[in-house]
Each structure stands twice: as structure tokens, then as C-alpha cells.
Amino acid sequence: MAASLQLNVRSFEPFFQSKPLSKHSPRLGTIRCSTATPQKRYTITLLPGDGIGPEVISVAKEVLKLTGSLEGIEFGFQEMPVGGSALDLIGLPLPKETLSAAKQSDAVLLGAIGGYKWDNNEKHLKPETGLLQLREGLKVFANLRPASVLPQLVDASTLKKEIAEGVDLMVVRELTGGIYFGKPRGFSTNENGDEIGFNTEVYATYEIDRIARIAFETARKRCGKLCSVDKANVLEASMLWRKRVTAIASEYPDVELSHMYVDNAAMQLVRNPKQFDTIVTNNIFGDILSDEASMITGSIGMLPSASLGESGPGLFEPIHGSAPDIAGQDKANPLATVLSAAMLLRYGLGEENAAKRIEAAVLDALNRGFRTGDIHSAGNKLVGCKAMGDEVLKSVDSQIPAAV
Ligand SMILES: NC(=O)C1=CN([C@@H]2O[C@H](COP(=O)(O)OP(=O)(O)OC[C@H]3O[C@@H](n4cnc5c(N)ncnc54)[C@H](O)[C@@H]3O)[C@@H](O)[C@H]2O)C=CC1
Ligand SMILES: CC(C)CC(=O)C(=O)O
Fold first, then answer.
1. CA 245 to chain centre
2. ipTM for the whole complex
3. Can you tell me the distance from the alpha carbon of 209 to that of 132, in angstroms, rounded to the nearest whole number?
4. 276-288 residues labelled b (16+ CB within 10 A) or e (exposed)
5. C-alpha gyration radius of the chain
6. pTM for this structure?
7. 3-state secondary structure of 112
8. Is the peptide bond before 54 cis (omega within 30 degrees of 0)?
9. Which of 83, 192, 246, 400 might form a disulfide with 49, Cβ 3.0–4.6 angstroms?
């Protein structure tokens, strides 16, 4: 998909809508009785993972099922282990059966991986390694992370209302390169006999060019403003990044390109986030800046993501981790995962109406005052993960299908 993708990313009405991306292997399928006769069938690989992952995936699955039944779509779900749960079950953080199932499906929805239990494992036996292997295996190099401050949640932002209100940005994060994957890496001993750990931040021209094009396409469909974030005053990989992004800009004369060092970008995001429309950045800076951006919107529990490659199924996941501090307590906010399911429908399957139905349902549940603890404020109704899911389901059921 990606380089020729029609990215679809002007957000906020209600979330991140516009034209769908290409469809991935839509198949005609089984007919069954339901509100609408299913015309399409998709196989979705669910990877609940660890911590709050299974809790939020269970909500998103029900939301997808109900939405599908109302939109003439039937989903075949296959649940596979990844991360710590796969380590416990099979001894590997990404069993080959999981990767193979993911590759053969139409889209992949992941909860989160990781937890204290596996924190001291060797690198190749860490849950996080499984997630990196999955992203690499699916070749999903373009990670779209939208961060919009919903009017309903302005009060949940940690920033002042006048700073947070109206923020609507998209972080385009490079996902399969940079320091998370660069070699050499490892542990060794230096000339003084001190133990050292080392990693390599490395980008090739083709990796920068393809993510830059995705970012320019994204910006073009939004406000036409792209800010490339790097550390080109210090890092060679960033110097090449800046050179290539500048070169690719000549293909997009209608997009206004600016460059910013990452330390300044981190500061500007909390000083004046409305100056940003689309941000493109490398793997590690994108990871950090999108977590920072999430707090402007109220909570990391609200932010979804879509990871796309040139072909094959996309990977959709909330940007948060497994939140071991609240796992198993029915406290997790499932909305980031529900919204990731909406991104799956839009970007992964081209099912725009179904995506809009889910996004409208999330807004409706918020409008009716339901809040999990992370976004709760006085005057609203505090609910747990399951109850929030039930409210979204009620809203899915009651929403009039959005017009195409
Ligand atoms: N994509 C993934 O699967 C990721 C996995 N991780 C892993 O997750 C584990 C925990 O990492 P942390 O640094 O603590 O990050 P985290 O994102 O799991 O949690 C950070 C804070 O946000 C809260 N939080 C996160 N998601 C929430 C939700 N849906 N609702 C309400 N509160 C939520 C947590 O309770 C915690 O206080 C680690 O093992 C880490 O490696 C971290 C980031 C991404
Ligand atoms: C391998 C992951 C735990 C890295 C991460 O934090 C993320 O990409 O969200």
C-alpha cells in the first residue's frame, strides 16, 4: 500500500476521516442472519498480548462485531499469542505461527505487550522484541499516530484549556528502522574494562524517502503543513534525514515544510501544540513525541495508531503499553484500542462507513458523560473498562450510519 496510498487523514470530524486507503483482500463471504446481511468477510488476527492488552482487545472485538453486523461485514477473528503471554506459552515472544497468521489475515489488531515479569529477560526473550519482530515481519514502516483534543475532553488535558483546545495533529513515525533495529548493537567491554551497551541509529535513503512521501501525502490531505523533527545538529543519521526530506519536498510544492530539532519539538508541543499539523520523525523520536502528544489530548488511553506497509495487512494498536500498574483491575481506558479498530476499518480494509460509526459511537459515549479514571473529571460518570465498552456498544447500536 503505503507509497501509493491515498492517505486519509484530515481529522476531527469526528476523528480522522476522509477517503479510505486501498482495500486489503476484501473477500465475499458467508451469508448469515443479522441486522444487515453480511456482504464481506475479513479475517482479523487479534493479538491481546499482556497486561491490559486482553481487557482492551476484548472490548474492541465486541465493537467490531457489532459494527460489522450493522454494516454488512462479517469478521473471522483468530486470537494468537504475542509478547509475555507467548513467552509463557511457547517460549518465544513472537511464535512463527503468530506471524504467519498475522501475515495471512486482512488486518491485525494488537493490545499491548510487556510486564514486570519479563523485564529482566535477555533481549531476544523480551516481550518488546516480539513486537519489534512483528512490525519488521509485517514490513509496516509507516506509523500514523493522530492526536486530537476532543471538545469533550479539554478538561482532561494537563495543559491549560486555551493551549489544548483545538489541537489536531498527526505524528508520522518511521517504524521499522533507526536505533530500534540498527546494527551493531549489544553489550561489550571497553578499553578500561567497563561493561558497555551500544546501539546504532542508522537510516538509508530509501527508508527516509518512503516515510517522507507518506508524511507529505498526509500533510497534503490535512492542513498542508509538515514539520520534520530530527537532531541534525548532532547526529549523522538526522543530517541525512533532513537532506532527504528537503529533497522530497520538491515533489510536494503545495506542502509547507519546516524542520525542528527534537529537543525544541518536545518543548514546543507543550508550549504551543496548535502550531503543528503533521509531524514526521524517526522511530525513537516518534515513540517519545507521540506519548507526549497523548497527554495534550487527556490520556495515553485515547490514542490509536495504524502501521502500514507497501502491501499486506496493516497492524493497528493503541500507542500505550501494557500498563501493569492497572492490569486486571478493569481500570484501563479501552478507547485507544476501539479507535485503533476504527483505523483498521478505514486504513486496513477501506470500510469508511464502519470506521465512522465507531468514531461517532466513541464521541457519543463521551457526550453521555462516561469516563474511565484516566480521563475522569468532576460531573462525569466514572466507569471501568468493561462498562465503557458497553456504553460504546450502546452508541454503536444507536448511531445512524454515516453517509458516504
Ligand atoms: N506497544 C506496546 O505494546 C508497548 C508496550 N510497552 C510496555 O508496556 C509496559 C509498561 O510500560 P510503561 O512505560 O508503564 O507504559 P504504559 O503505556 O504501559 O503506561 C504508562 C502509564 O499510562 C497508564 N496507561 C496506559 N494505558 C492506559 C489506558 N489504556 N488506560 C488508562 N491508563 C493507561 C498506565 O497505567 C501507566 O500509568 C512495559 O513492559 C513496556 O515495555 C510500552 C509501550 C508500548
Ligand atoms: C517495542 C515497543 C515497546 C516500543 C514502544 O514503546 C512503541 O513502539 O510504542
1. 23
2. 0.98
3. 21
4. bbbbbbbbbbbbe
5. 20
6. 0.91
7. strand
8. no
9. 83
**Non-local CB neighbours of 333 within 8 Å, separated by 6+ positions:** 56, 299, 301, 302, 372, 373, 374, 375, 385, 388
Whether 131 is in the pocket of ligand 2, judged by its Cβ within 6 Å, is yes
Q: Which helix (H) or strand (E) holds 314?
A: strand 314-316
CB proximity list for 292: less than 8 A, separation 6 or greater:
266, 269, 270
Mutate to test the pocket of ligand 2, among 113, 125, 128 (most ligand atoms within 8 A of CB): 128
CA–CA dist 378, 234 (Å, integer): 46
Q: Are 15 and 92 in contact (CB under 8 A)?
A: no
Alpha helices, DSSP H, located in 141-235:
161-164, 205-221
User: How confident is the model over 125-174, as pLDDT tens digits?
Assistant: 999 999 999 999 999 999 999 999 999 999 999 999 999 999 999 999 99
Length of the chain (residues): 404
Atom of ligand 1 nearest to the CA of 56: 29
- Give the distance, in angstroms, between the CA of residue 64 and the centroid of all CA atoms in the same chain: 17
Q: In degrees to the nearest 10, what's the CA dihedral of 21, 26, 30, 33?
A: 10
